[in-house]
Design a protein that fits this description.
The complex is a heterodimer.
Chain A (H helix, E strand, L loop, with lengths): L1 H27 L2 E6 L4 H15 L2 E5 L3 H9 L5 E4 L5 H7 L3 E16 L8 E2 L1 H9 L8 H6 L11 E5 L4 H13 L1 H6 L12 E3 L1 H11 L3 E6 H6 L6 E3 L5 E2 L3 H11 L23 E9 L1 E2 L2 H15 L16 H12 L2 E2 L2 E2 L3
Parallel strand pairs in A: 1-2, 1-3, 5-9, 6-7, 6-8, 12-13
Antiparallel strand pairs in A: 3-11, 4-8, 4-11, 9-10, 13-14
Helix pairs in contact in A: 12-13
Chain B lengths: L13 H43 L2 H4 L3 E2 L4 E2 L2 H32 L2 H16 L2 H28 L14 H25 L3 H9 L4 H30 L2 H6 L17 H8 L6 H33 L8
Antiparallel strand pairs in B: 1-2
Helix pairs in contact in B: 1-11, 3-6, 3-8, 4-6, 5-6, 6-8, 7-8, 8-11, 10-11
Classes of the chains: A alpha/beta, B mainly alpha.
Chain lengths: 351, 320
């Protein structure tokens, strides 16, 4: 009995010492708290793990969705926000400070389909995609589809359109593209994380859309590129601005960023869908980290900007293995300039 | 209440009375917590939904458009989807659940009751997201390839069973909800039927009733209020269920006569769109939809209770 107590006391003592050490360590490290988009979460958690080991800075990222990320960023309850869509002018006004959008990586959105007897690589022109999602092209053997795919054995079945039912950055990129290539889409439906779909079924999440497409014959849906690759779905090739049908891939997404470079504004707030460039895959978009241009806390501000610098340089090498398209060098140069403009108490954060 | 009591006699210890009083205050506080929480939820919902209430008012209930881009919001198709999918679920689950309950309480030998009851309770314990996945991968393909074609060829002349068999839609949602609510009906109904005094059964038997007649005339009327309670519980679960429904209902805000057509429910649209809603009016509209669900649930429950009260006024003794 006495021994038991004794040992208990010893354990407690050890625990105390360990806790004390942890507390001391905690006091010395900087912890950056962020919240937002779910799409980049696997990458951000990888970065957080590597960065904590290399630089001793803790990154605590909560993937609560872009909407929640922007709200928390405006309320200043987090050190950085993250979003798959740029903030609106209203939201920036609400935030009440200089807001910077820093692109981290890009993702592509891919049409996927399930047509019995038709293999991967079906060609889609922008007009056909828009007309299918508008409910105007309803048969798989519509002359418009046949014209782009003379060799495919297309059935005379009805096209079952599948879209996301949950609000998502994937949808935002997809409908932004459709708005750019179809005036009718822009006028009738428009763009956003959720829209009033003219036709089709709604699946919840990438897995919901993928599940529906995989099981239901004659479906056409859209999912994130990473999801299409890992789940071996049959992707469609989309015709880009240069007239080429481009297989969706990480490299053709990076090519899209290069192609769009000239048209990307200084604040990076843009969906760069339908860019120039011969090999550019046309349906892709950034995911951003949102920070204030004037940091209240110089220590945290410095840690944050250093982390973003690392993420857009060394951190990029982790992107392809996790199926994100890394930023092209030319764009990183421009991001460097933006990061140098961050100030705290009137002084630049970076030397 | 306290005033009508006799004065404390000399045998009564004052400390015991103090304890009683404290206990009563404690229990009253606990009881008051429930309405307070409900009231707080209501206030929070109304204040957060205020921009949308101010903008759309009562039109919100009768508008069918849900367009986040244009900022036009109406919940009519969502109310329809919520009510119809729940009604469909009860339509399927009540006969099935009562059948199982009667079997378990009246016909099963004792050694079989425990394992069967255990499996029923196990069904209630499965998380709804798991049931939803089962719905996507097993139920929906079966509905598309077997159930819907059969219904269509047999009853296709009815608008209820028209349109292309997609698998996903109102029918699948009703089916999956019925799977989820059956355990509630079974578990509670079995218990109340088992609680019927055996004298009731023996009396019916003595009058020459058969097994089924005994159940119908002696057991079911006696257990009626408990069975209705079980159905309430099932209804509440069906109205509020989110995850499994959104995975199989197709998520299209429309009102179609056909059960094959996709539909949408209020909990599903809130769960789907809340995380990525950035616009203030959009968020307010989603919270307003939550408020509507609250109102619909209260209204349906009140209506059901009214029906029960009316039914309960009838004779609860054995008829015939």
């Amino acid at each position: 009995m006495g021994q038991w107590w004794y040992r208990g006391g010893a354990t407690l003592l050890i625990l105390n010492v360990a806790l004390g050490t942890a507390l001391v360590a905690l006091a010395q490290t900087v912890t950056l708290v962020g919240a937002g988009a779910t799409f980049p979460f696997p990458l951000y958690s990888k970065w957080s793990e590597v960065y904590a080991a290399e630089r001793g800075v803790q990154i605590n990222y909560q993937s609560i969705g872009s909407g929640g990320g922007i709200r928390q960023f405006i309320a200043k309850t987090v050190d950085f926000g993250a979003s798959d869509g740029p903030m609106t002018d209203d939201q920036i006004a609400q935030a009440g400070g200089r807001v910077l959008h820093i692109p981290m990586v890009a993702g592509a959105v891919v049409p996927v389909y399930n047509v019995p007897g038709v293999g991967p690589g079906l060609h889609f022109t922008p007009d056909v995609l828009a007309d299918i999602f508008l409910g105007k092209v309803t048969k798989w053997n519509d002359p418009q589809i046949v014209q782009a795919n003379p060799k495919a054995a297309l059935p005379s079945a009805d096209i079952v359109v599948v879209h996301r039912s949950d609000g998502s950055g994937t949808t935002a990129i997809w409908v932004n593209y459709l708005s750019k290539v179809s005036a009718e889409w822009k006028q009738k439906v428009g763009e956003g994380t959720s829209v009033n779909w003219p036709t089709g079924l709604g699946g919840k999440g990438n897995e919901g859309v993928a599940g529906l497409v995989r099981q239901t014959p004659n479906t056409l849906g859209y999912v994130e590129l990473a999801y299409a690759l890992t789940n071996k779905m049959t992707p469609g090739y989309v015709r880009n601005k240069a007239g080429q049908f481009i297989p969706p891939s990480l490299s053709s997404t990076t090519k899209a960023m290069e192609g769009a470079l000239a048209s990307i504004p200084a604040d990076f707030r843009v969906f760069f869908t339908n860019p120039d460039g011969k090999d550019a895959y046309p349906i892709a978009g950034f995911t951003w980290i949102l920070i204030y241009g004037d940091q209240a806390d110089p220590v945290k501000g410095k840690a944050l900007v250093e982390f973003l610098w690392w993420a857009t340089h060394e951190g990029q090498k982790y992107a392809p293995t996790l199926l994100y398209a890394s930023l092209p060098k030319s764009l990183v140069t421009r991001i460097e300039q933006t990061l140098r403009t961050v100030t705290s108490r009137g002084a630049a954060v970076l030397p | 209440m306290i005033a009508t009591r006799p004065a404390p006699g000399p045998v009564e210890e004052p400390s015991a009375r103090t304890g009683d009083r404290q206990f009563r205050v404690l229990l009253a506080t606990m009881a008051a917590a429930v309405p307070v929480v409900i009231g707080a939820i209501l206030v929070a919902l109304i204040s957060a939904a205020w921009p949308a209430i101010h903008r759309f008012g009562a039109h919100f209930f009768v508008t069918s458009t849900w367009d986040p881009v244009a900022g036009t919001f109406g919940v009519l198709p969502f109310i329809y989807g919520t009510l119809v999918s729940s009604a469909l679920a009860l339509l399927l689950a009540i006969p099935l659940g009562l059948g199982v309950a009667i079997f378990l309480s009246e016909l099963t030998p004792g050694w079989l009751r425990t394992p069967v009851g255990f499996f029923v309770e196990l069904l209630a314990a499965i998380p709804s997201v798991v049931i939803g996945l089962w719905g996507i991968f097993v139920l929906v393909p079966w509905v598309r390839t077997t159930l819907e074609p059969v219904l269509k060829s047999a009853l296709g002349f009815l608008p209820l069973f028209s349109g292309p068999p997609l698998g996903i839609g109102m029918l699948a949602a009703g089916l999956i909800l019925s799977v989820m609510v059956v355990p509630f009906i079974v578990a509670v109904s079995t218990e109340v039927m088992r609680a019927v005094p055996s004298g009731q059964r023996e009396a019916a038997r003595a009058l020459g009733a058969t097994g089924w007649e005994t159940t119908r005339t002696a057991v079911l009327p006696y257990a009626r209020s408990g069975i209705i309670g079980a159905i309430f519980l099932a209804l509440a679960r069906a109205l509020g269920e989110t995850m499994a429904v959104t995975m199989v209902i197709g998520n299209v805000p429309q009102i179609k006569a056909s059960l094959f057509a996709p539909a949408y429910t209020i909990p599903a649209v809130i769960a789907n769109e809340f995380t990525e809603a950035t616009d203030d009016l959009y968020v307010a509209a989603l919270i307003y939809a939550g408020l509507v669900l609250f109102i619909v649930t209260v209204a349906v429950n009140a209506l059901a209770r009214l029906l029960v009260n009316r039914a309960a006024r009838g004779p609860s003794v054995i008829r015939e």
